[in-house]
Structures are given as C-alpha cells and as structure tokens.
Amino acid sequence: MGGSVTKRLRLAVATSLMALVLSSCSVFSSMATPDPRDDVPTLEVAWRVEGEVPIIPFDGAGTPESTSATSGDRYFATYHGDGMTSGVQAVDLTSGETLWKTGTNLLCGLSEPSASGILVAWQSSQREGSDCDAVTALSADTGETLWTQQVEDPVHRGGLGPKSVAATDRTVTVPTACGILRLDAATGEELGRLPDSPCGDELASGTGAITTGELIIVPGAEALTAFDAASGEEVWRTPGTALEIDEVRSHDPLVLDMTVDGVPGIREVDVSTGEIGPLIGRPLPRIHSGDFPIAQPGGDEIVGSYENLIGGIDGTYGSSLRAWDRASGEETFVWHTAGDELIGVDETGAYLGRTIDTDSRGGYAYWVMHRPPGGEVESVGWIDDQVLEFMKVDDLLLVHGWADPGDDSGLQGAITTAYRLPEQGTEVEPPAPKSAAAPIAWADDDVRTDPTVDLCAQVAPETLRELGIGDAADRPAPLGCAWEGGGVYLSAGATAFAPGTTDPVTGEEGERRSGAERARTAFEGLRSDGAYSEVAGLGDEAIVVTSETVGAPAHDELRTPPVSSAAVELVVREGNLVVAISVGSGETPSMFTSPPESLLPVSGARLEQIAIRAADDVLVAAGAGPLDAPAVEGPTGVPDVCGTITVEGLDAAPDALASGTDPRVSACLWQGDDEVARSGFVYAAAYEAGPGPLSGMTAADRAAAVYGTSRGEPLQIDGADEAHLELSPRSWQGSARVVARSGDVVVIAQVRTEEDEDTPDAEDRALEHSRAEATRIAEELLAAR
C-alpha cells in the first residue's frame, strides 16, 4: 500500500460569520518533566541520501499528487520535474538508493505492482495535456515500458470523482469518463468497459466506478454492484438508493468516501460480500474539497480527521486527531494539541508529530508520538532537527532537508533522511509545542469552547424532530452542520471570538480588543447589509430575515403546479459568541441563492420558533443562554387536504402529500399518469397563519401577506373574508386559480384541465371546468375547518 503523507500547512483562523466556523485556541504550559528529551531517545537514522526521494503531500484522496505504492523493500512514487514533466521513481527502502527513474508526461495515477511485477502509470499522452488519456505498463524491476494504450473518453486530471487504477496478473483497470476500462495485463488489449452502457454528455465527469484490481465496483441509483475485472461477470450486488463514490481512502480494507441513501460519508465495504459498513464519524457535506477527510484503517479502527478549518494537525477538523470503531462507526478517541500533525497510520496504530525546542536555548526539533489501536498516545522518539516536509512509508519517516555544510558525510544540497519509527513508546509526556503565539488573555466571561467539540453540531435532536427533519435527526450531526429531510432544512454555525488585534470584518490589524468587542464588530458587519431586521430581547443583540410564500404560481404561470417557500435566518450574539441559524423549506440553499421552492408548504411561524430553539441549543451547550423567547399561542390546525377533498379521474401523488408534522399546513396534488407539465392536475392547500416571535408579525398580518402574493379578479366565496380568481386559457387547455382568506386561514386551489380534442369550444369548456373545480375545492376547505 502507498504510505500516508503529511505536509505542514499554515495556521488559518476563519472569522467570516457566513462561513460560520468555530474558532478556538489552546494555551499550553510547561510539562512536569524538566526536559523530556533526556528520557526519550532520538530516532534511529536508517539512511541518508543526496537528492530528494519523492514525498507526496497527503490530501487523503487518489489525486495525481498522491500516487505512491510499496512492494516489499521497494517504494514507487511519482516525482515532478521542471515544468509539466513528471515520472515514476523506484527506491530501495533499505538503502535509499534510486533503482530506476522514468521520464513521462503528467501522471494521473499509479498502481501497486502486480504479483508478476507490472506497474501501471496512468497519464496524459501530451506533455501539457489535461486529459488522462494514456496507460503505460512498466516493469517494476527495471522501469522498462512494456506497452502503452490510448484511452477513449478520458477523464480530466482536475475533474471530480475517484481515480483508482490497478493491475493484476490478468487485467489492468483504469477510469474513463464512462466507466472502468479493462485491459489485458500482458498486451494492453482492450477487454471492454464497465458499466457496459452508452456514454453521453451526462457522464462527462465520470461514473464513480472504482477498481480494486480483482473487482470493478459500480455505484448506481438502486444498488452497489461488483464485477470480476477479468471476466466482466457480476460478483455481488448490494441494494441501496442514491449510491455514489467520491474517493477511495484505502484499498485494503476498502474504505470509501461514498453516499448511501443520499447520506455522504466515510464507510467500509467488504469486498467479498458487498456489505456496506456503518457511517464513520459524521456525514460529510455534499460538496467538499479533496483534502478531507483523512481516513485510514489501523487495526479495528479508522483513524483520521475532518477538514482543516483552523490549523494544527494537517487535514484535521479543529486540530483534532480522531479514531472511530470500524464495526460501529462511533468515535473512540480524540486528541487535540495545536500544532500537532498526523504522520501516518498502519496496523500498529497512528503516528503524530510535534515541533518543539531543540533545547532550553531554542532552535527546532521534532517529537514523534504513537497511539496503538484502543490505546493512549506515547512518546517514541525525537529528531534533533527541523522537520517541514515528511512522509511515512512502511516503518520509515522520510524527511526532506539540507545537508549541513560542516557534516563529514560528504552529502551536499538537498537530502532525504529516513528515520525508523518504533512501535513501542513510553509514557513520558512530550515537550510543549514550539509556538510564537502569545497566550490569549481571555476575559472571565468569554465563551471558551472545547476545541474537540463542534459547537454548531449541538442542535438537539428534539429540535430537528420538531421541524420534521426525518431520519437525519437520529444520525450524528453532519460535518457542515446542515441537516436536510422531510422537505425542510436547518443549518447552524457558531463563532467564539477571542481577544485580538485583527478586525473580523476587514481583516486589518488594529488596536487589541476583547472577544466581545470583536464579536460586536462582526455582528455589525452583518447588520449593515440592510437585509436583516432587529429582534428585541433576544441575547445581547439579534437580527433576522424571513420570507414566505404558500402555493404561489411557478414561474408566474398556471400551467404547472404552484410552489411554496419559507425561510428564516437568525443571528444572535451573546458576549463573544455569535450563533447563526438558517431554517426553511426544501433543500439547504447555497450562498447567494433564493430559498428553494417546494410543493410542500411550511409555516413561517413554526420556522421562527424552531430557529429560536436551535440557537438556544447552541448557546446553552456553550455555557451561554438560555434565550428569553416570547411564548407563542399554538395553532388550531387545518384539515388534511388529501383526506378532505375528492377529485374524480385523478390520483393523489404520494410524494406531494404535505400534511406532515406541521398542523398549520396541508396540501395535496392530484395528477394523471403523465406527470409532465402538459398534463392536467389539481392542487389544493390550506394554511393557518401564526404570530412571528422573530418577525413581530401577527397571525392576521401573516395571512394577509400570504394572500397578497398573487392577484386576480375579486370572487365571492362562501365563508371567505376575501377571495380572488385568476384564469389562464391556452389552446384546448384551461387553468384556474382561486385564493381565499378567512381570518388567519388561507386556502389555495389551482386546477388545469385538458380537453381530449381541439374543438372550437374546447378552450372554453376546459376553462369553465377548472374555474368550477377550483371554486368548489376552496369552499370545501373553508367549510371543513
């Protein structure tokens, strides 16, 4: 297997409220041991060579910059030369000697050697090409080119999706934009492609299929399917929905960044049976960069981290190394020290590194620690030199550096040193990390959250269930703190501001200010955009923006079923802590987009209550709050529309039943077998407005606002305070929409009728039928309440 790799990143603290990243800091004191260096040996040097043995920055994914493999005492890795050139370099791990080196075009991937010694380089056929359109088989012993094959429908080097490549004694398998290409290992002759289906523009970004060498595994809408790479025959099939594979984190065992039943995350797949293991840790955002999560198997655990949001351990979330049980997916260990780095993971456990003072006078040294599966972190040794760029390969730690001019080794310029990594450590506590950062002068009343706890994830499951979020409420909090399900979404963010000199809005340096003052400045930056309204009596200060439509015409026309949308964005500051909650209908909107539309109405009054509860959950978890929220009178409720209204000749669409868990709203859609825009349909909705504890709207104000979102000719409706009718003739079709209000209740009925034949009076008959049906339905809904 290729070694895991780490490269130091600069410390970056995100202060943007819209990014809603929890930033926190740690202060370290001197350890009890006067000088731990006296009790722990320096690491043994296995070898030192002139020049640089390739060290690949570990981004946790099979990208062109992360291609390496080992076989016995040989290490194979890509190197990058001048300009756009790169190649494969083979190194003897016992001595550091370069065995051979090829010069090729840019590489997209490198396989592990097969049992017969075939190593596959997947690359671009052009010196500066951007497509992975060539496969070259190399001799693992000599580097000699055995054969080269062009690839049709190649994937782009910078494209998304897994890029696994493999070689066995029988086959070579590489990705294309249309599936995995199978080649004869001896000759390079094409054997076919899996999945064996037409390739269209919709597959230009790839199919998500991967190869393990022996198997080709294809995700699909209804199953995860494995095929024998040599014969193409199906081996196993695991049922599931909305299956996708984003990255391969480990081949043995097979650990994938994959989506199952619409939930993205890290999972292990049993290659012999196809069984998909539990979600490891927390669900991942649907769109994320390739540098996280690191997830490597070590014994009975998956060890790794989440995205590096605030620095520290390379590639980690909150500077924390984490371990999860492979069988259950539950977190078993977390380690947090600012500046520590994950060196690598193997069957003996995880290795970590820390930059320290070389002695009491300063200078740079590097402390190495080891944690066995299920155990605690122990010190295993240290390096009396600065370590900036490194990589774990088997039991060696490869470090790039420069030869000491006074060294009698004869080495000059750039060098690579290999240190042996012991499995056994001692309980000696490591020295404090070397840091130029001054201790933070926190105020006594500042919120200082545990850096291993993601504060925005503290929204209570009960709050999510009250919203009707569905199964997501029972899973670990998504890494992005954005929940979806049941036609609604909720996202949360929290920022604990530390005292400092940086302006949180402009990023400019200035006078030192307290955490609360910096939080106030950031809050004022949001308030100044003009979209928010003030909320009195909530925290130290609070602002909100709300929007709501119920059964509004889609695209300002009546030919398609109406849509609804509702959203609340609440920001609360209490001391140095700022909490932001976004809740609404549909799926989580992206930045700068309007609230998503849905057939399912959601009560704006209820969303305001949920937003307050979610903000309170986060504040209380941080030791602040609780919020002093006003009491709101409960709803009377509206009738179940699907159960109240009968429509002849059409069936209720199951996915459009919208009574849900909110007693204030109910809707139903009836349509024919042909569920396209041209077919006839009947839509009906009932909505009870409620007071807004954040917006300050009364129930009457909210009902009037919803009623006023559409316009039409005044209409007399039994039981209505006001009503209007809108008609839309079109060829032999006719559409009608009736909106009526009675007190704080609004009902909407929209009907489109199609006549069978385009006769001269077809349009009039369709229009009259739609008008009569819409009027009847509106009256029946008002009477049912």
From TrEMBL:
It comes from the Bacteria. Pfam families: PQQ_2. SUPFAM superfamilies: Quinoprotein alcohol dehydrogenase-like. Residues 762-773 have a biased composition (Basic and acidic residues). Residues 1-32 form the signal peptide. The keyword Signal applies. Residues 497-516, 751-773 are annotated as: Disordered. Keywords: Signal. InterPro entries: PQQ_rpt_dom, Quinoprotein_ADH-like_sf, WD40/YVTN_repeat-like_dom_sf. The keyword Signal applies. Residues 87-238 form the Pyrrolo-quinoline quinone repeat domain. This is Pyrrolo-quinoline quinone repeat domain-containing protein. It comes from Brachybacterium phenoliresistens.
